[in-house]
């Protein structure tokens, strides 16, 4: 899970991997494990297993993604 995970960038390695920076896989993210999600990756015309591809878990070769963010319930101002 990525809950409460700090954002990882090229210059701020906050992922849980001790051997490399997950942001080197084409962009920043709330990484815990690089291999499960990369919405900033490259598009490949075929289904490939590549850490630089745009993917989400087992869905490979995504053409596009849309990320929607909403506040937590207790943060909504009434």
TrEMBL record:
Q: Which InterPro entries match?
A: Fibrinogen-like_C (IPR036056), Fibrinogen_a/b/g_C_1 (IPR014716), Fibrinogen_a/b/g_C_dom (IPR002181), Fibrinogen_C-term_domain (IPR050373), Fibrinogen_CS (IPR020837)
Ranges where the Fibrinogen C-terminal domain occurs: 1-73
Q: Which Gene3D superfamilies match?
A: Gamma Fibrinogen, chain A, domain 1
Q: Name one GO cellular component term.
A: extracellular space
Which SUPFAM superfamilies does UniProt cross-reference here?
Answer: Fibrinogen C-terminal domain-like
Q: Which Pfam families match?
A: Fibrinogen_C
**UniProt keyword terms in alphabetical order:** Disulfide bond
- UniProt protein name: Angiopoietin-related protein 1-like
Per the UniProt record, the source organism is Drosophila albomicans (Fruit fly)
Q: What is the lineage of its organism?
A: Eukaryota, Metazoa, Ecdysozoa, Arthropoda, Hexapoda
């Amino acid at each position: 899970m990525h809950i409460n995970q700090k954002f990882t960038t090229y210059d701020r390695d906050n992922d849980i991997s001790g051997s490399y920076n997950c942001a080197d896989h084409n962009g920043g993210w709330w990484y815990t494990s690089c291999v499960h999600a990369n919405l900033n990756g490259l598009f490949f015309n075929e289904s490939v297993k590549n850490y630089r591809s745009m993917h989400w878990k087992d869905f490979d070769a995504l053409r596009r993604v849309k990320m929607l963010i909403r506040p937590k319930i207790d943060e909504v101002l009434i």
